[in-house]
Amino acid sequence: MQLSVTTLLMFAGLAVMLPREARADENPHGHDGAAGLPTAEKQVAPATSPGSPSDTVVKVKGEFSAYSDTDSVNVFTPAVEGTITNPLTGWTASGSYLVDIVSAASVDIVSTASGHWVETRNAATLSGSYKPGNVGVTAAGSVSREPDYVSWTGGGIVNLELADKTANPSFGYSYSHDTAGRKSTPFSVFSEKLARHSMNASLELIVDPLTLVSFSLDAILERGDQEKPYRFIPLFAPDIAPTIARGASVDTVVRAAQSHTVEHTPGSRNRVAVSARVAQRLSGSTLVLTERVYVDDWGLKASTTDLRFVVDASRRVFMWAHLRGHFQTGVSFWRRAYSAVLGEAPSSVPTWRTGDREMSPLSAGTFGVGTRWNVGPSARATAWSLVAQADLLTTVFSDALYIESRQGYLGVLQVEAEF
Amino acid sequence: MSLVRVGLRGALCIGALLSLCAVASGCTTVAAYERGRLAHPTMSPSDASSVAREHVYAIQEGAMGGTLGVASGCGCN
Predict the structure, then answer these.
(1) pLDDT band at residue B6 under the 50/70/90 scheme
(2) Nearest-CB residue to B48 (from A278, A281, A370)
(3) Could you give the dihedral angle defined by the CA atoms of residues B36, A307, A411 and A285, in that order, rounded to the nearest 10 degrees?
(4) How far A143 CA sits from the closest chain B CA (Å)?
(5) 3-class DSSP assignment, residue A411
(6) Does any CB of chain B come closer than 8 Å to the CB of residue A215?
(7) Sign of dihedral through CA atoms A409, B59, A191, A332?
(8) What percent of chain A lies above the pLDDT cut of 90?
(9) Facing residue for B7 by CB, picked from A308, A363, A387
(10) How far apart are CA A205 and CA B17, in angstroms?
């Protein structure tokens, strides 16, 4: 991973050194490319009257993805997304729907003596935007539903264009209400609630004719229950806990544990993330570097670096490589092996305890490749596009039970159409 | 030095690099007719985005924020 960070910095250096003069014929966008950005093209008076059918652009995207990892989790996700835009009047409406079909027999399931299960998650979003001038507003809502978990979200974003559209700030807020329960048990009998307030401020800057930079600040305030009702934490005698090794097997843990208890985490969590993105158009290629730094009041600190390098193989074909590195500390109350003296009064069971491996210290890396093939007619090559992507994901858990690392594979096929 | 600390320090270097870009941005005015290449599809955050990939990252990384749009949570981990 140290090597990968060095590699990222080398790529960033290359971005400065590589020829940055763009080819005259390199911008193959149809309706899509210029739609979101202030260019001279957009200032040309429309040939047709505003609001006429020919002004409306309809985009449809279908996505089929498959994920599999070495922890026996397999996910198949078909998804569809549609957008209707009228650039002249400034209206946009969009919606999406996906189904996650999850088949899991992970070590966390095995460790609780549960069997393999299959579950589906349905998620949908709807949004509408209106941007008649230099100010735009977006309202959006989404819902995600599993047999034992329902999440509703609603929010809005205000976009501004300042300084001759070279500085474009936006401000957003969303509210989520999550209800977690147990499968086959009505929410009225058992449920846990979680409220999430998410605030975002971002600023996109045009640095030069080939460079976009954007900054984003996210504050996320969570109130409520974040424990998972299925997750049980093994408790060890104080002299045994230090001997439980990283990646200790289920058998070892079962033999050594004196008891199990339910997960219990604080009732509030405040998260802050700062991210920056640089998109640099080079000669026949594009380099995009994103960095996110994250901290929360549970003590988790994280850094995520994402790099994508796209090469224009031709006017119709684009190919890219994708690298991502994520490093995080654990939450302050994370313990690989929690210890307690049973029967003692007052109880010595730690107040806060979790078995969520994603709250432990970990390092994760992604290497991916992808290609876009614009297969539309020569006059509008982007009218139809095929996108194929493949990612190899690896995660190293430096202080967790059951597994030391996990390798995942993600394949994505997308079909995009524009009318 | 742990892998996590190495990563966090690397992040600080990258953050500093990006901040330098931001400082530089205050010095240039780009006319509208010069912005055509900025509209190239590959410059957009949504290019090659995948709901599946975003979901995998949301589940497997302890951090949140910095992503596009409004999305609901899940009980996935």
Answers:
(1) low
(2) A370
(3) 40
(4) 6
(5) strand
(6) yes
(7) positive
(8) 72
(9) A363
(10) 16
Report yes or no: A319 at the B interface, CB cutoff 8 Å: no
Amino acid A372 reads R
ipTM of the complex: 0.83
Confidence of residue A8 (pLDDT cuts 50, 70, 90): very low
Measured at the alpha carbon of residue A343, what is the angle toward residues A340 and A348, in degrees to the nearest 5? Answer: 35
* pLDDT at residue B57, rounded to an integer: 92
Report yes or no: B45 at the A interface, CB cutoff 8 Å. Answer: yes
Give the per-residue pLDDT at B8. 59
Backbone angles phi, psi at A380, to 5 degrees: -140, 80
Band the pLDDT of B9: cuts 50, 70, 90.
low
Q: Residues of A numbered 15-44 whose beta carbons fall under 8 angstroms of chain B's beta carbons: which are they? A: 22, 26-29, 32-34, 36-41, 43
Q: Which residue has 């009980």 as its token pair?
A: B75
What 8-state DSSP symbol labels residue A336?
Answer: S
Average pLDDT, integer, range A388-404: 96
Tokens of B20: 């330098």
Q: Which tokens sit at A394? A: 């690896």
Q: What is d(CA A192, CA B59) in angstroms, rounded to the nearest whole number? A: 19
Nearest Cα residue to B43 out of A110, A281, A3? A281
Tokens (6 digits) for A85 = 């835009």
Phi and psi torsions of A5, nearest 5°? -65, -40
Average pLDDT score over residue span A341-354: 83
CB contact A206 to B (< 8 Å): yes
Q: Are A400 and A368 in contact (CB under 8 A)?
A: no
The A259-262 sheet, strands edge to edge: A259-262, A232-236, A338-339
- Per the CB < 8 A criterion, the answer to whether A243 and A217 are in contact is no
Per-residue model confidence as pLDDT tens digits over A247-273: 999 999 999 999 999 999 999 999 999
Residue A10 has pLDDT above 50, yes or no: no
What residue type is assigned to position A54 of the chain?
Answer: S
Query: Taking Cα atoms as reference points, which of A3, A70, A8 lies closest to residue A306?
Result: A8
The C-alpha atoms of residue A24 and residue A26 are separated, in whole angstroms, by: 6
Question: What pLDDT, on a 0 to 100 scale, did the predictor assign at position A45?
Answer: 40
Identify whether the C-beta of residue A345 lies closer than 8 Å to the C-beta of residue B25. no
- Partners of A92 in beta bridges: A85, A129
Amino acid at A39: T
